[in-house]
Amino acid sequence: MTNVIDPQFYPYFLVFFAVLMPLLLSFRMFPVIIYLVITKNLMDEPGDRSAHINRTPTLGGLGIFVAFTIPIIVLGLGSNFSQLDLLKLLSVISGGILLLFAGLKDDLVGLAPKKKIMVQAVAAMIVILFTDVRIQSLYGLFGVGELPYLVSVALTLMAFVFVINAINLIDGVDGLAGTFSIIASLAYGLFFIVNGYYLSALVSFVIIGALLGFLRYNFSKTRKIFMGDSGSMFIGFLLVYQAICFLTCNTEIGTLYTFANGPILFLATLSFPIIDTLRVFCIRIKQKRSPFSADRNHIHHRLLDLGFAPKQICAIIGLANILVIGCAFMMGDLQITLQLVLIMAVILTVYLSPWLLVLDKDISLRLEKKIADNAHLPVGTMEALDIHTEQQYNDMLEKYNLRGYMQDTGKAQSMEERISLLEKLMAKRLDVFKKLKKTE
User: Fold this and answer.
1) Around Cβ 338, how many Cβ atoms within 10 Å?
2) 103: closest CA among 207, 234, 215?
3) Tens digit of pLDDT per residue, the chain (440 long)?
4) Which of 101, 230, 336, 354 could form a disulfide with 302 if both were Cys (CB 3.0 to 4.6 A apart)?
5) d(Cα 85, Cα 299) in Å, to the nearest integer?
6) CB atoms inside a 10 Å sphere around CB 376
7) Alpha-carbon gap, residue 255 to 253, rounded angstroms
8) What span, in angstroms and rounded, lies between the C-alpha atoms of 210 and 222?
9) Closest C-alpha to 303, from 366, 348, 355, 368
10) Cβ neighbours, 10 Å, residue 54
11) How far apart are CA 310 and CA 179, in angstroms?
């Protein structure tokens, strides 16, 4: 391919077709997958923490994998990549296949967390051992520079497993994991393409094309599909691969545009899933539960509770991630340990800010009035119970065992849909409202 294209225009050609090929393939493939999944009844059932209310096809990860693999093989074989580059490509695809099958099993019949972690570790070790893609240096962070080989391998393995699971955990709202991954891949892809690392750039832009095609159907109301664990683990694997390639390429002699704060940019780019996962793990451990147990403590759950729709949540998180990356970029001239302190302050401020907000009072009162109306209670009954703050609101839910029903309202995509769903749920609980009426 490079023999027939002017080298000056080759990067533009590569980026254009790296995005276009998986995008077009996705448009043809996802409708077929959706049809087959519906026909074979391989649907995701709404649960207590689901952000949807209908049974939905959940094998989008299969489509993302195919939309990524076919174009990258075609473009990879059509380019003059070295044998080492082709080995890297083969290793990435091999690790992706392992994660795909583990994710498909989890989507269809379930898979224990320990087994998933084992598969993730094997996929990571394939890349680490066969291609030597690993975190080799901390750039002087905490006074640590070049890492011993075994420490480097262990740290890289932990990074792979943690980020794969972190991406899996943020996949709780339509489009969120896909939108975040596009932004992160674009950041890495631009670095690779301007520095001439075309294989790594190919990985970045092909996954962008595949995810753009997926999001069209993930956001659809009539032909919706979820990426499932098969998709979230696969794109998490590709994200951490790109991040570690960035750290490696950034220190190589001959790289034109480098950054002295590579680890800080690594952290900033993947900051949202990292901070969200660390936060929910700490909460679960504090409550003496397994870190992998399910709950509604994620950042996107809080934004849902504040009344934001899935597309709005994707926009908020996406802009927040861009802001964090921009801050890390501007800190480049500072001492690297100081940068770590400052970027952590930015990350905590940006991503934990939803907890500084309380439930909108108008939304709260509207819901309360709908409950009262649905239970045939006089208007003002809820106010008579002195429910004016979020804490009082939560206390009422706990007192009358309504917590699960109120959380279920987060499944709908708009406040009107939430209220409608709430009415249906409350109609089944008139006995509870009889107790409320007695308190008048």
Assistant:
1) 10
2) 234
3) 555 555 667 788 889 999 999 999 999 999 999 888 888 777 665 544 444 445 677 888 999 999 999 999 999 888 888 888 888 899 999 999 999 999 999 888 888 888 999 999 999 999 999 888 999 988 888 888 889 999 999 999 999 999 999 999 998 888 999 999 999 999 999 999 999 899 999 999 999 999 999 999 998 888 888 888 999 999 999 999 999 999 999 988 888 888 989 999 999 999 999 999 999 898 888 888 888 777 778 888 888 877 788 899 999 999 999 999 999 999 988 999 999 999 999 999 999 887 666 544 444 444 555 454 444 444 344 443 444 444 554 555 555 444 444 444 444 445 455 555 555 555 444 444 444 444 44
4) 354
5) 38
6) 10
7) 6
8) 20
9) 355
10) 12
11) 11
SS3 for the chain is CCCCCCCCCHHHHHHHHHHHHHHHHHHHHHHHHHHHHHHCCCEECCCCCCCCCCCEECCHHHHHHHHHHHHHHHHHHCCCCCHHHHHHHHHHHHHHHHHHHHHHHHHHCCCCHHHHHHHHHHHHHHHHHHHCCCCCEEEEECCEEECCHHHHHHHHHHHHHHHHHHHHHHCCCCCHHHHHHHHHHHHHHHHHHHCCCHHHHHHHHHHHHHHHHHHHHHCCCCCCCCCHHHHHHHHHHHHHHHHHHHHHHHCCCCCCCCCCCHHHHHHHHCHHHHHHHHHHHHHHHHCCCCCCCCCCCCHHHHHHHCCCCHHHHHHHHHHHHHHHHHHHHHCCCCCHHHHHHHHHHHHHHHHCHHHHCCCCHHHHHHHHHHHHHHCCCCCCHHHHCCCCCHHHHHHHHHHCCCHHHHHHHHHCCCHHHHHHHHHHHHHCCHHHHHHHHHCC
**Length in residues, the chain:** 440
Q: What are the b/e assignments for 289-326, b being 16+ CB within 10 Å?
A: eeebeeebbbbbbbbbbbbbbbeebbebbbebbeebbe
List the one residue out of 3, 68, 1 whose CA is nearest residue 29. Answer: 68
Q: What is the pTM of this model?
A: 0.79
Q: Which of 307, 316, 319, 317 is nearest to 272 (CA)?
A: 317
Tokens of 292: 């992998």
Q: Which long-range contacts (CB under 8 A, 24 or more apart) does 72-78 make?
A: 72/18, 72/202, 72/203, 72/206, 74/21, 75/1, 75/14, 75/17, 75/18, 75/21, 75/202, 75/206, 76/199, 76/202, 78/1
